[in-house]
Specification:
451 residues; Ribosomal Protein S5, domain 2; 11 helices; binds adenosine-5'-triphosphate; binds magnesium ion
Amino acid sequence: MKQKNKKAKKLYICSECGATYPSWTGKCISCGQWNTIVEEIVSRKPKKTIETNSIQKPKPITQAKEQKHHIRITTQIPSLDEALGGGIVLGQVILLSGEPGIGKSTLLLQVASNISKERKVLYITGEESTHQVFIRGERIGALSDNLYIMSETNLEVIIDTIEHENPEFLIIDSVQTIYSSELESAAGSVSQVREVSAKITEIAKTKNIPVIIIGQVTKEGNIAGPKVLEHIVDTVAHFEGERGHSYRVLKVIKNRFGSSGEIAVFNMKDTGLEEVKNPSSFFISERPEGKSGSIIFPFTEGSKPVLVEVQALVSKTVYAVPQRKTQGIDINRLSIILAILEKEGNIFLKDRDVFVNVVGGMFIKEPAVDLAVAIAIISSFFNIPVDRRLIAFGELGLAGEIRSVHYTEQRIKEAKKFGFNKIVIPYNSKIDDPDIIPVKYIKEVIELLKP
Ligand SMILES: Nc1ncnc2c1ncn2[C@@H]1O[C@H](COP(=O)(O)OP(=O)(O)OP(=O)(O)O)[C@@H](O)[C@H]1O
Ligand SMILES: [Mg+2]
């Protein structure tokens, strides 16, 4: 007799190199990596024969323009719309990741409630009960009859519900809690996360429903799950902030429907997240006066720069090995900057602890921050406050040279808007402006800071 629910055939694939195995192993023999083997379904249903008239023929790119343009819907949070490139596109799949308790569910419940004024919204929660979501909704004023919630973790049930309910906007909270019964592995495993996101993406595309998927992050701050998850979705956004502080930053890491690097800033309140319309003034508002070790840096990875305060504290160490600690920049980057300051600037820090902090809870990956970090350290080392009208950006090369970076004009414009008129920039940027101080080597910067 034929078995009715025949289990799908499985294979084990290395997520690093693609080598396949008939059973799971801890180490991939092919590439030598550990814990990279994931379970994979190889055949789920019999292949349909492809009808020849449904196959698309190649066409010249000049004729590839589609009649229907991307229709964008608004989240009714202007800075969020802007960060996403002008709203959410129909069929767009957005992955929102962030640390536990940062406010992902709060933000998305607000977005869901706003959108439900015009469209039917389905909010799937795998982490909380519907009552918990109701309580949050009541607290932040996000209750609406057109906002449907469901506490479910089975992917097949969720897909079925989407088919029957026909929502016009979908939220999945979170991808790590949903499981497909076609796979044996537990919810949150690499293969489950991959399967769930692929299936949700497929339904979003075929039914043209915009979807926001919440993704948890690992201890290292990466999205929990395979890298391929980030490839599947159209947009990846990180929600970050410092514990104990109320500001939150949404950073768009990848976007197929707009530029990446855009940010939106929020303030977490009892009543939910409130957008910060002018992030620059928000971040530099508490800058100490007359103190050394503080400088403003125009941060940008997208089109909209934001001024942030970079602080350094250099103090005599009491340890055998001096301390180096950072918050908001990469610790390895700090080591390089310190080595350059020693070699090219004769600033010896072997008996000093060095702490660097980016105020505002933002993590700055762009190398343009190097010069601001170096200046903050120099300022603290000599105990000389940086001129309050001075702002700086540029990458530090290993020979002590200041290298040019992206978005020079935009950064200068934002700096001027806030009254900065001593703008220290890389020499090669070649900007003709009386407020600009071009610098070629770190030595010149040190001379510039000395009174
Ligand atoms: N009653 C309350 N009043 C004010 N703020 C609250 C209240 N309850 C929760 N919060 C804030 O909301 C945060 C939790 O938000 P939320 O549940 O949206 O986070 P999350 O990112 O979805 O977390 P998780 O990863 O656990 O799902 C808390 O850390 C706290 O700052
Ligand atoms: Mg949550």
